[in-house]
Structure prediction request, 481 residues.
Amino acid sequence: MPHGSVLVADDDSAIRTVLNQALSRAGYEVRTASNAATLWRWVTQGEGDLVITDVVMPDENAFDLLPRIKKLRPDLPIIVMSAQNTFMTAIRASERGAYEYLPKPFDLKELIAIVGRALMEPKAKPVNVTGLDDQDGIPLVGRSPAMQDIYRVLARLMQTDLTVMISGESGTGKELVARALHDYGKRRGGPFVAVNMAAIPRDLIESELFGHEKGSFTGAQARSTGRFEQAEGGTLFLDEIGDMPMEAQTRLLRVLQQGEYTTVGGRTPIKTNVRIVAASNKDLKILIQQGLFREDLFFRLNVVPIRIPPLRERAEDVPDLVRHFFAMVEREGLAHKQIDAAALETMKRYRWPGNVRELENLIRRLAALYPQDVITAHIVETELAEPATTSQPAESTGGPDEMSASVERFLASYFSQFGEALPPPGLYHRVLREIEQPLLGAALVATRGNQIRAAELLGLNRNTLRKKIRDLDLRIMRSGR
Prediction:
């Protein structure tokens, strides 16, 4: 007995044949069509328990047909196939009521499994097809298998409020993914508020997130709203969540559990209605083992994990990204550029330690600094080789000059993250603290935890060192005894 009837629509006869054979072997009754008109006629006649259709048909785009099908037969599952493997294709498929989106080429076993799951599930409620305007600025670029997996996950999440944890190296585009979740989700009408935990002084994080009352601490001369209040009805993006101090982690966990918070110095609970999206370039499981991140908070945040692959793992996306960034800088007023095939191959072979952000910066330099209309492999090789030659002198002495240059480079990179704005106040003490902690830790490791020898090595009074160890919570001291 057939498991159900499947209608297949694709203008490629080879694909129709392959799908017909695979679905028939799996026990389904199959009818195939080469155009949208035939598919629509079958649907209006009540035929088929499931539809599989390509997006681009000779007579009509499937995205125009899907809303009509869902209006006529809201319980009919539709699987959309497409060779236009972009983020917007996945989003449009979801918005127009598709059960699943599959980028071509796809695995036939996966398709059979999806068909079986769709036919066995209880009939879904009618989907509210709101439609999205076509947009020139696609937020995510790339057609690699890794990115296709991300697009499909994002498409499923758009009509939910599930908490999402995004992991990935610096520069991979974690905030872009968070913004896409907001801009194309059901909270798109609300605010999107981003907070970088690494850029806020530790003693100000709770005030930054939850706000404070007048007089709650020195300098609090007026009531201040926090990011939770600013994000009400929208999305709160907590970037670099691994840098959040323990005290703030405890308060955040309470908010996630109870759905309310109090301001610093306040007593009245405030109900909150925000979607939380968190991100980290650190392995939070390692931080949990080190006692630096709460395990219960991790499980609260990690409802839907999304890993953004580094650019070196999706080198096939480099050409698309290059064209995207050249078009972007041209719209900003820079000269039109082309890039030859050899230059693209050079870029695809490069490791991209700074990921997509590094590639974007390279494209900006190429467009701004080179008068040539066509960017060649030699130009690209020169640009990519420069950091290695300038940052590593022929004879590394490890002396003060080299350390000073490293600090200068770090600070230049840090300031560039804020664009035309400035970092939060308190930078002087924040930088000193960042340098002080690894310095004291290294001294304690070198002296095997002997505080007297470490104080002598550092030129500090022993009591001063003990206070700093306590203030900085240098746990390496205790494990080195």
